[in-house]
Design brief:
single chain, about 90 residues, mainly alpha, 3 strands
Length: about 90
């Protein structure tokens, strides 16, 4: 499921599939716990159903503000993002 800007502005929880996340970030749960319990930046609906529904996350109310597009001017970062985008397009 792709996110769109509208998703980021609503109060809804965005489902994050643990298996997909595990494939990218081995200790993803530690990072999510840090964001949720230590920094208090995100919150979870704490609900998942195996094979049906992934646990949902969203920013805490303090950080739910309109998203502003910003042009990336750093050449190195732009190059890395372009390479990543091209790799995704090939797979």
């Amino acid at each position: 499921m792709r996110l769109i800007k509208k998703d980021l502005l609503e109060d809804n929880y965005i489902p994050i599939n643990a298996q997909n996340l595990q494939a990218i970030i081995q200790d993803y749960k530690r990072y999510l716990d840090y964001l949720e319990y230590d920094l208090k930046v995100i919150e979870s609906d704490k609900h998942h159903i195996v094979g049906e529904k992934s646990k949902g996350f969203r920013l805490v109310k303090k950080y739910r503000v309109p998203v502003v597009a910003v042009a990336i001017t750093d050449f190195t970062l732009r190059k890395k993002l372009k390479i990543r985008k091209n790799k995704k397009a090939l797979s």
